Amino acid sequence: MKIEIALTLFGKEIFIPETIVNTWIIVILLSIFAIYVNKKIKNAKIDEKPSGLLNVIELLVEGVQSLVESTMGADKLKFAPYIGTLALYLLVANLFGLLGFKPPTSDYNVTFGLALITFVLTQYYGLKSKGLGGYIKGFFEPMPLLFPLNIIGEIANPISLSFRLFGNILSGVIIMGLMYGALGYFSILVTPVFHAYFDVFAGVIQTFIFIMLTMVFVSMAME
Amino acid sequence: MPSIDPKAFILGCSAIGAGLAMIAGIGPGIGQGYAAGKAAEAVGRQPEAQGDIIRTMILGQAVAETTGIYGLVIAIILLFVRPLLKAF
Predict the structure, then answer these.
(1) What is the CATH number of domain B23-87?
(2) Contact A139/A147 with Cβ under 8 angstroms?
């Protein structure tokens, strides 16, 4: 499915690409899901066992919290909501290719935006926990000569983080496109295996890696 | 002998460059295989730490993969964005 919107606003043509439309579909779906779960949790009785969907949600929340606790430490549990949001969004976005949409993460703008959030978090919490002096001193370690290298290393983090996700998902999209083009009507027989690898396996692994690296970068900056 | 169309020449050279850029895939292949082998050794020595070992291995492999992804991005840019054609 391919939805693209071309608007003409104040005499200027505005083009909204497919990936942004897909992102909004995901955001709306996740919001509806969150509101539904919220209603269900508010109506649930506290002294009873959770049932059905609430069990799954509890598993998810506890999984994210224990992952954050084991990677960042118990004192940084306040990052769990952000990590959980990131994980949910990336998981749905990477698996969106299964439904015939173009995954939003195969657009470099999306992944670079997400990596920039991580970069800002890293710098902000590094500055906050070390203080201005300690933060600047961190660039001159282990010796002052390495200052330019430290700056480059700091800037390379979001670039490598975003390229990793983008490259993995886009290569899957390209290879699947080539396969559908080459095999024609026989593609139904072969492509499910490759969908399982490129969309499900690579998508889940890349989601995990993105949130793990985000946590590692932020907690390393705070030490 | 008919002369070569400059546009076709640039496109052909871009395709060769994209192919050469993908040689970068060798490095991550060796690195990831080495990490997986070491992780298998570690699991053999300490089966109870399997979860931690797998998590560390995947993180290390992701970082090792970066150079390969850079090569892939260069190849994709050469094939689909075609910056050399615009310069011409």
Answers:
(1) 1.20.20.10
(2) yes
